[in-house]
Known about the structure:
Blueprint: E1 7-8, H1 28-40, H2 45-67, H3 85-100, H4 105-117, H5 123-142, H6 203-215, H7 225-236, H8 240-255, H9 259-287, H10 292-297, H11 328-344, E2 347-353, E3 362-367, H12 368-381, H13 387-407
Antiparallel strand pairs: 1-3, 2-3
Helix pairs in contact: 1-2, 1-3, 1-8, 1-9, 2-3, 2-5, 2-9, 3-4, 3-5, 7-12, 8-9, 8-11, 9-11, 9-13, 11-12, 11-13, 12-13
Amino acid sequence: MKAHPPLLTAIALAALAGSSPTSARADVVHDWNVIMQATVSSSNPLVLARAAAIVQLAVFEAVNAIEKDYQPYVGLIDAPSGASPEAAAVAAAHGALVALYPASAVSLDASLAASLAAIPDGPAKDAGIAVGETAAEILLALRANDGSSDAVPYTPGTDPGDWQPTPPAFAAAFSPHWGSVDTFGIRRGAQFRLGPPPPLRSFRFACAYNEVKALGAVDSAERPQDRADVARFYAVVTNFVALYHAAARQVSAAQGRTLSENARDFALLGIAGSDSFVACFDTKYTYNFWRPVAAIRAGDTDGNPRTSADPDWLPLITTPAHPSYPSAHASAAGAARAVLEHLYGEDGHDITLTTPSLPDIVLHYTAWEQITDDIDDARIYGGIHYRFDQEAGARQGRQVGRYVLLHELRPVRHDHRNGLD
């Protein structure tokens, strides 16, 4: 078993979902990334990741139209000379968020006024605001008919290995259409579709089945407390923004990234995060593979002599209502890790993650790999995924993240610090 980073039980140094725009303040891109996080937090993880990508791309497009450090995403804005990139970033984020979350308009308008009050009045500020508003309009129009609101019928299978609604809610399948949503960076959801999960009669399936059965049961005596804690933590923190954008802000501030760099960094992270979910759900609903709780309760039907049924088995955490293979958390983690390691380096960081709903758990990391390792353990020790779900999801996510880095928002001038740039 891999070594794990220490699990702290002290007061958080930086709240995962509760930091304010003035804590560890770097610039207005950071400020509005925090505001975006708070605004989108009520959405489900898929809608939330899409919204984050739209907002952060609008911010990037606005800032980059003025600074011109990177290849544009759309490239339709002709910014006047001397326009304020700070005003552009603020107006772009506000415009996108108000359109996506009109119920939050009052608080967003107040944040807009506070941010703009800190920027000197004059033609530069006015021009920047106009650039930002245009960027938001362009991104919103681009995503207006992207399939995210579509509904498709879905009927669960009834054979061994088929996904079926799981206890306790036995909820209907969640977002079976999401694999067909238009992507931001990769060509389509099926571009990185994975091969099938292991056959039910295989040794690999039996090993993964027995691992999660032993370690992930609600009453498991084999689960260490620190693995129970990460399982609980990452059952709550499935919000891509509250995890990876919050961690990125900590590292970005420590490294002193520029406004232009931050605009691009959060946009790349937004693209990779949203596209990883589309790719994952394309694979999920291609194979429709059953969750551990369904498999273990029906272990005498899979044709594998190495598995045995436990009709009363329950996992430590509640099973999400969509197919098991691959893990969406792992796919998102793989994509985020590819982007964040490229932007900030693999290790040597000081990242503290908390969530208000679990104040007794504080996680501290120095490397992005430590986060992805904990997420893998969280899903297995939590009883909701097989090991091969995690491995496949991570592989798919890395492919998505690397593709995004190679094809989107490339520097105008070559950066010799990293071959991808």
